[in-house]
Amino acid sequence: xxxxxxxxxxxxxxxxxxxxxxxxxxxxxxxxxxxxxxxxxxxxxxxxxxxxxxxxxxxxxxxxxxx
Length: 67
Prior knowledge:
Helices cover about 30% and strands about 0% of the residues. The chain is mainly alpha-helical. It has one domain (about 1-65). It is globular.
C-alpha cells in the first residue's frame, strides 16, 4: 500500500469537482512526481460523498493497514 499527501489544490478553493475529478488530480500529481514509477500506478483520492448513490472512501481505497 502506498499513499501521498498533498497541499496542491485544483485552483478552485476546496472544490474538488467530484470523485472522478479528484482522482484525476491525484493521478496528475503522481505523474509529475519525482518518485520512481508513481505515475504508472493508479491513485485515488481519499474521498467520500453523501446523498443518493453515496460513495464511501473505504470502498474506494481499502481498509488500510491493520495495526
